[in-house]
Amino acid sequence: MLKYCAKRLARSVVSLAIIVAVVFSLLRLMPVEGYFSQLDQMTEAQINNELEKMGLNDPVPVQLGRFYVQILHGDLGKSTRYRDGYPVAKIVKKKAPISIKFGLLAMGVSLPLGMLLGILMAKKKNGIADKLGTLYIILIQAVPSAVYYLLIQLYGTSALKIGLLYDDDKPITMILPILSLALPSIAGYAMWLRRYMVDEENKDYIKMAKAKGVPKAKIARQHVFRNAVVPMVQFIPGSMLLTIAGSIYVESLYSIPGMGGLLVEVIKRQDNNMVQGLVIIFAVLGIFGLLLGDLLMALVDPRISLTKKEGSR
Amino acid sequence: MFKGNKALKSLLALALSTVMVLGLTACGDKTADTKPADTSDSQTAEATSEATEAPAADSNEGPFGIKYAEDQTLRLVYGAEMSTLRTYGGEGTAVSWQGISNCISALVCRDCYGNIQPDMAESWDVSADGSEYTFHLRKDLVWSDVEGNDMGPITAKDFQTAVEYCCDPENGVTDSSLLLLKNYKELIDPEDPNKDISTLGFEVIDDYTIKVTLADVIPYFINTFNIFPVPTDYFLEMGEDYGMDNESIYYCGPYIMTTFEPQEQRVYEINPNYWDLDNVHIQKIIMKYNAEAATLAPEMFKRGEIDYADIGTDILDEWMKADDTKDIVIPGLPDTTYMYYYSFCYNPQFDDEYEPDNYMKAINNENFRKSLFFGLDRRKAYLCLDPYNPDQFLTTTVTPRTWCSINGTDYVDLPALKEITGRDNYGFDPDKAKEYRDKAKEELEAAGVTFPVKLLMPYNPNTTGWDKEVQVVKQQLEELLGSDYIECTIEAGPSTGFLSEVRRAGKYGFMKLNNGSNEGDPCSWIKAFVDGANWNFMGDVLYEGQLPTVERDGSKSDDNKDLQELVTKYYELLDTAKSYTTKSQERYDAFAEAEQFLIDHAFVIPYAKDTFGYHVTRTNPFEQITGQDGRYKYMHVLEEPLTNEQYQALYADWQEKQAASLK
Amino acid sequence: MAKLSFKFSIKDAKTEKLADTLLSVEKDTLLKSDKLTDEEIKNIPEDLFVPHALDEAAAEKTGYSSYSYWGSTVRTFRQNKMAVAMLGIILVILLFTFIQPYLPGQYDPNLINNDPVTGMQIMNEPPGEQFWFGTNAIGQDMWARIWAGTKNSLFIGFTVAIIQAFVGIVLGMIWGYVRATDFFFTELYNVISNIPTTIILILASYVMRPSIRTLIIAMCVTGWLGMARFIRNQVLIIRDQEFNMASRCLGTPVWRVITKNLLPHMVSVIMLQMALAIPGAIASEVFLTYIGLGVPLDIPSLGNLVDSGRALMMSPSLRYQLLFPAIMLSIITVCFYLVGNAFADAADPKNHM
Question: The complex's ipTM?
Answer without folding.
Answer: 0.76
